[in-house]
Each structure stands twice: as C-alpha cells, then as structure tokens.
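Morning. Coffee machine broken again, so started the prediction first thing and wrote up yesterday's gels while waiting. Chain of 251 residues, entered below exactly as on the submission form.
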Amino acid sequence: MTMTEGEILAMFLAEKVLRQYRDTPYAEQIAGAFEKLARYLPEDISINTRELEQLESFPSRAVTVQQLEIFNTLARATVSRERLALSYFTQHRDVISDLVVDPYHLGNVNGDWYLFGHCHELAHVRVFLCSRVRKAESLGESFDKPDFTLRTYLEACIGPVKLPPSDGAVTISLLFDAACAPLVRDHVWHPSQRFSTLADGRLRLRLRVDKLETIGRWVLSWGRGVKVEQPESLRSWIRSQAEAILSLSES
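Came back before lunch.
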C-alpha cells in the first residue's frame, strides 16, 4: 500500500490535531489511528509518533492554504525526486534566499517538519525548517539521490551517538544566548532534542546522549554563546578544557 499525495497532506494536518488534543479524552484514539497511518508513509518521509506523544500540547495556529500547498509540493518532490526552487527565510540574517534544492528526505522531528536536501548554492546537504519556506516550486528536473539516510545524517551532526539513546544515556541541558538561538533552532542536531524559548530570546536545548566527550567538543564550538546547565560532569569537563586553553594562551 502506498499513500497518495492527498493522504500525505492529511498526515501533515493530523499531526497538528494530535498535538492539539494530546491532553483530552480523545488523545489515545487519535494517536492510535495516526500511528497506523504513519506505517504507510513513503521511505523518504518520516514521522516518529512516540516523539509526538511526549510533546506538550498547545493551541495550534490555523494552517494557511499557502502552507498546505508548500508542504504538498515538498512532499511530492521528495517522493518523486524532483529538483526544487525554494524561497527560504533565514531568521538570523533576516533575509529570504532563492535556492535550488534536491530534496532527500522530509521528516517530522519533535513536532517540526524539516526538509533535508542538497543545496546547490552551498554545495552540501542542508536542513530546511518547512515553516520558513515561503515559496516552493518543482523545476521539472529529476535527480539521482545518493546513499542518504536520515539516521546516518543525524549521527554525523554531533558525532557517533546511538539512535535511539540507550537506557544509560545522559540528559543534557544547554542554554544558548539570543544571538546563537536562531542558528541552533534551525537545525536537527539529534533525534532526542527538545527546544524551549525563553522570554529574553535565549534558547534551552535538552537532549539525551551516551558519549559526553562527543557532545562536549560540540558545545565548545559555540564558545561563550552557550551555558551548560546539566549534567555536572559535562560542566566540569567544559571548565577543564577552558582552563587548559587559557593556560596555553598565557604561556
């Protein structure tokens, strides 16, 4: 059984309904039906129903006709492997860029839809937050998809982590300043990530990993733009690395 374009679009809307009614008596029935439907998604489109069950519920904004049309175009091009012309809003630069993209995968990660694809202008795979796509149009050109899987891509974002995290995984809490927040928010770093935005523009990122050294090196790359809230073992490791760097610069 394969899904039609209309049925994939229905999944897009059903995900929003599931989140809106998560804390109601209908949640279990909606989630059960949604999980059954998700099994028939094409391999290039993914959604993790278990992740959606863990998300906080909140009143959903109305979905515009334009958003539906854009998602439909993205889904159709991903499944049929058609090259896309995108107008994409980059928040941290406050600009809309016109890009040519080969869509590899369309996935829902922690409640947000992302398009993973090769950006011709940047000459590498980039992650696009679907809600920031202002316009999408198929160029009518086909492309050969490389050996790309979402699992492999996510493993490479931070480092060699186990997917999903094992029972021995550690919960990490990082607080990014307002300048770094848009850069962090635009990416899928790990399948367990959870974002929460503070009133002052700072961004809290929570995730679970089983290798502190890997996440530690990634945290260091953000410099003073990030604060480690937990665990204490990671805070101590970052502190020791910072002291070592300082001693080298003073010698």
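Confidence is low (pLDDT under 50) at residues 53-60, 160-167. Going to sketch it on the whiteboard this afternoon.
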